[in-house]
Automatic annotation (TrEMBL):
The keyword Cell membrane applies. Residues 879-920 are annotated as: Disordered. This is Uncharacterized protein. GO terms for cellular component: extracellular region; membrane. Pfam families: UPF0182. Residues 891-914 have a biased composition (Acidic residues). Keywords: Cell membrane, Membrane, Transmembrane, Transmembrane helix. The chain crosses the membrane at residues 48-72, 102-120, 156-181, 201-220, 247-267, 274-295.
């Protein structure tokens, strides 16, 4: 019975190992098939051979080295030794070995070789860098070596030396054990006869090699001082140069001396010299390598840190700017004027026309409710881009209507993997326009896709989205049944057949079995829906697809869709990064909430743009920065991966400077704008990114650092997020699509909130990546975003209107606070959305706050608010045809309102037309009636009608006040 259980257990274990092994082989084969389907098998094989080659090489070296040492140990086994208590063990071991010596020696060597060499294949990236070095043309200030040595060669050399030290140590231990088993070492016995002279010589030589490997390690450690984090800044600072570097040089000499002692000990009796060598090394390592640098740091550097560290701070500033792409920043003055005239608006009409009223963060719910159409369609993210609409470059908010796999009509395998395979089209709206209800004025919308006149650039000819954000699992195309192309609002279903190039053919039984094992899905083998032309699509998430193809790159967290020649292309920013750039500051990536830039680095470039066709999944990797040595090295490593032609202009027009990279650069620039070491140390003139007003009026957002127990360790105000803006910068002739972030003076307690400057990076193809910083020049303090947001709360009119709208089942949702340079002045804009409570709430733009200098106003539209803030403004902003239902005159009064809902009676629609015929009493009666209608509309949840009636009532009251002011004052006789 017991034997049966044992056999059953072993059988179960064997079955588990078999299945695991077979699944591993299936994944290995299907990975190759996937790369081959994309014509990128050379990338897969290059990585594979690099891993295999490294593993085999180091495993073979260790195997041969250990085998030879074991062979020597056997040859040095004593033939005759004085009898002792350990002879029996030695005798039995030698009997066991007998003719098996070669086999046992080989098995032991192989076992340890596999253990020691197993992890070497993980160094394939370091190996490819080592063999494809590209010079930076920049030398470090301490050793005068090109940065390429540190980035491409030092990591692999350091690994080899560390591996060699560990390997020799393992060989020493195993060889010592073999000598003991062979009788060459006795633990018991007389002191002089415990180790034979031959064994002592052998072990002394191994110890000498160990010391030599340590010496080479010390030699390489000198170069790693340029990455030290001991001092005030990263790099080899005072203690590293004056204490740690001499200590390492001394330890190198000691290591070589110990090697000599251990080799000399071959001809000496006993282990006196090895003991001296180890003791000497331990003493010097402790005193010179640890204690002395600590004393220098404490008693020389800390009392006068700014003076001691000054030259090294200057090195850090120079190299950090280069490493983070901040060495080519163009600084300009912004001669601030507190007022903004109508003339300046006319001169910057394109900037004002393109003020972004639609906040992407708020608009997601609106897009989902108005354009989701079906529950299984989802807008995961709203992105900002620019397109030509009505002949003008217009900022657009755009989102992909993706498949929501968790909300399909049914959860059958056929439905999930064969019927519903893709999302459908995009929705896009000008960021500066709304319809009569305060919702996006869509230029691209609906199912099937509908593009309005004048927006041909948004037309989509291939709306199927087979690759997207967050698409998981796999889909089968080319099955015996059709796919569901889309379902519209009328429950009409259209079917389609995929005719793209993506996917792996799955017609043969072997491939069906392989994929069934990979996905643990037997239906892939037994289903009758799969035919000879069927293909399986997998790795359909944009970021996952790119990472699988190029695991050596870092990728941005936010891919975005672009329409290029009627096709939907996903654009994903890829970064080349390293943490081996000498003297550069390691980036604090806390500002990046997700993505590959969260792991440490001190050099980064956005040198590669990945473009993936949303329909056929075809990836294209473009190198857009030919001056990046890392990108050039990758080109040498994987020549078939990168496009040999530049991106087409129509595609490059949609490239954006990545937000996460800009976050890190602006965070660094606040301190690294300072060139002098003393000023840098004292943070004199340092900036911080401006505080974020958050999603409330009058308050800033706060983030806290919390420990494992839930205790708040520290709190600080959140920094304002980068914003994409379409505007004309000072001294420019045309508007540019830029990413923008403002600065305030640095303060430990975030108390300083006046505007000091702002940074922009150009996104247009002819100026892409150019960084400009504008420093505010003003005789009086200029409000930063947080101060302006606080000022909003003090405006009585704004406070009253917001309070009123926050009642009766609705909530005010503030949008992004936008700071927009216009001429030599600054324009603050903050849209306010009204959202009714409930699960299907749709935020609608109903109010806009505008600020110019000390003036802060609110109105029902941006045009009206701008007209109130800037006296004499008479230009027609012409935000777009979508505004024709609610055009606004220059004085801010509504000229025409939409009566289509039937609640606004025609005789009251235009109160000003009959103002001369109505008395004050009639106007007040009409205003009271309008307020009653507004209350009724609000209770009914019709926010658009509510706003119209409130505005109408205000118009009646204003006209009544005007009539009262024009009436002559009556005297006593008249009263009589």
């Amino acid at each position: 019975m017991r034997r049966g259980r044992v056999l059953l257990g072993f059988g179960g274990l064997a079955l588990f190992l078999l299945i695991t092994s077979v699944r591993g082989l299936a994944r290995f084969w299907t990975d190759y098939l996937w790369f081959d389907s994309l014509a990128l098998s050379s990338v897969w094989t290059s990585v594979l051979w690099a891993k295999i080659g490294l593993g085999l090489l180091f495993t073979a070296v260790f195997f041969v080295t250990l085998w030879v040492n074991l062979f020597i140990a056997d040859r040095l086994a004593p033939k005759l030794r004085p009898p002792g208590p350990e002879d029996e063990l030695s005798r039995r071991w030698q009997q066991f070995m007998g003719r098996r010596a070669i086999l046992v020696r080989s098995l032991v060597s192989l076992l340890f070789a596999l253990l020691v060499g197993a992890g070497v294949s993980s160094q394939w990236q370091s190996w490819l860098f080592f063999t494809n070095r590209v010079d930076f043309g920049i030398v470090d200030q301490q050793f005068g070596l090109d940065v390429g040595f540190y980035v491409f060669q030092l990591p692999f050399l350091t690994f080899v030396v560390s591996w060699a030290f560990a390997a020799i140590l393992v060989i020493f231990v195993v060889t010592t054990i073999q000598h003991y088993l062979n009788g060459g070492i006795r633990i018991q016995g007389q002191a002089g006869s415990r180790v034979t002279p031959q064994v002592k010589a052998h072990l002394s030589l191994l110890l000498g090699l160990l010391a030599l490997a340590k010496g080479v390690g010390y030699y390489l450690d000198r170069y790693e001082l340029t990455l030290s984090g001991r001092g005030f800044v990263n790099g080899a600072t005072y203690t590293d140069v004056k204490a740690q570097l001499p200590a390492l040089q001394l330890l190198m000499i000691v290591s070589v001396f110990c090697f000599g002692l251990l080799v000399f000990n071959i001809w000496r009796r006993g282990f006196t010299y090895p003991i001296i060598a180890v003791g000497l090394w331990a003493l010097v390592a402790s005193l010179a390598g640890t204690i002395y640098p600590a004393l220098v740091q404490r008693f020389q550097v800390e009392p006068s840190e700014s003076t001691k560290e000054a030259p090294y701070i200057e090195r850090n500033i120079e190299m950090t700017r280069i490493a983070m792409g901040l060495d080519q920043v163009t600084s300009r003055d912004f001669n601030y004027e507190p007022t903004l005239s109508a003339t300046e608006i006319e001169e910057n009409l394109a900037t004002v026309r393109n003020v972004r009223l639609l906040d992407p963060a708020v608009m997601r719910d609106t897009f989902q409710q108005t354009q989701g159409i079906k529950s299984f369609y989802d807008f995961r993210d709203i992105d900002v881009d620019r397109y030509t609409i009505d002949g003008r470059t217009t900022q657009v908010v755009v989102a992909a209507r993706e498949l929501k796999q968790t909300d399909l009509p049914n959860s059958s395998w056929e439905s999930q993997h064969i019927a519903f395979t893709h999302g459908y089209g995009l929705a896009a709206a000008p960021a500066n326009a709304i319809d009569a209800n305060g919702r996006p004025a869509y230029a691209l919308a609906d199912i099937p896709t509908n593009t309005r006149d004048g927006a041909d650039a948004l037309a989509v000819s291939s709306p199927g989205l087979y690759v997207g954000e967050g698409l998981k699992g796999y889909a089968i195309v080319g099955a015996t049944r059709d796919e569901v192309d889309f379902q519209d609002d009328d429950d009409r279903t259209e079917v389609t057949r995929y005719d793209g190039a993506d996917g792996v053919r799955i017609g043969s039984f072997a491939r069906k079995l392989a994929f069934a094992l990979r996905f643990a899905e037997p239906n892939l083998v037994v289903s009758n829906e799969l035919g000879s032309d069927s293909r399986i699509l997998y790795k359909r998430d944009v970021v996952d697809r790119a990472k699988t193809i190029a695991p050596f790159l870092r990728f941005d967290r936010d891919p975005y869709p672009a329409i290029v020649d009627g096709e939907v292309k996903w654009i994903l920013d890829a970064y080349t990064a390293t943490d081996m750039f000498p003297y550069a500051q390691t980036v604090n990536a806390r500002a990046v909430r997700s993505g590959d830039l969260r792991s440490p680095f001190n050099y980064v470039r956005n040198s590669i743009k990945v473009v993936i066709n949303a329909y056929d999944g075809a990836p294209t990797f473009y190198i857009v920065d030919d001056d990046d040595p890392l990108a050039e090295s990758y080109r040498q490593q994987f020549p078939d991966l990168f496009s040999t032609t530049p991106p087409p202009v129509e595609l490059a027009e949609h490239f954006r400077y990545p937000e996460d990279l800009f976050r890190l650069q602006t965070d660094l620039w606040g301190r690294y704008r300072i060139s002098g070491a003393a000023e840098f140390y004292d943070a004199a003139g340092a900036w911080s990114v401006a505080q974020d007003p958050g999603n409330s009026i009058g308050q800033t957002a706060v983030e806290s650092v919390i420990d494992a127990t839930g205790k708040i360790i520290s709190s600080s105000e959140v920094r304002i997020a980068p914003q994409y803006l379409l505007m004309r910068l000072p001294d420019d002739d045309d508007e540019s699509f830029v990413i923008f972030r403002p600065f305030v003076p640095f303060s430990d307690d975030d108390s300083r909130k006046n505007l000091e400057g702002f940074m922009v990076v150009h996104n247009d193809p002819d100026r892409y990546g150019q960084i400009e910083v504008y420093e505010i020049r003003s005789s009086t303090p200029v409000d930063g975003p947080a101060l302006f947001n606080s000022n909003i709360q003090t405006e009585e009119e704004i406070s009253e209107r917001v309070t009123l709208l926050n009642q009766n089942g609705s909530t005010v949702v503030p949008g992004n606070l936008l700071l927009i340079p216009v001429g030599n002045s600054l324009l603050y804009v903050r849209p306010l959305y009204i959202e009714a409570t409930g699960t299907t709430a749709v935020p609608e733009l109903q109010l806009v706050i505008v600020g110019v200098g000390p003036e802060v106003v609110i109105a029902d539209s941006f045009e009206a608010a701008l007209a109130r803030a800037i006296p004499g403004l008479s230009v027609d902003l012409n935000a777009g045809p979508a505004q024709e239902d609610a055009t606004v005159s220059s004085d801010g009064e509504d000229e025409e309102l939409d009566d289509s809902d039937g609640d606004l009676e025609s005789d009251d629609a235009e109160p000003d037309d009959k103002s001369e015929e109505r008395s004050v009493e009639e106007l007040l009666t009409l205003s009271a009636d309008a307020f009653q209608r507004a209350d009724a509309a609000l209770r009914a949840g019709d926010l658009a009608a509510y706003q119209q009636w409130v505005e109408r009532a205000a118009g009646y009251i204003a006209k009544a006040q005007e009539l009262l002011s024009q009436s002559p004052t009556r005297d006593d006789s008249d009263a009589a």
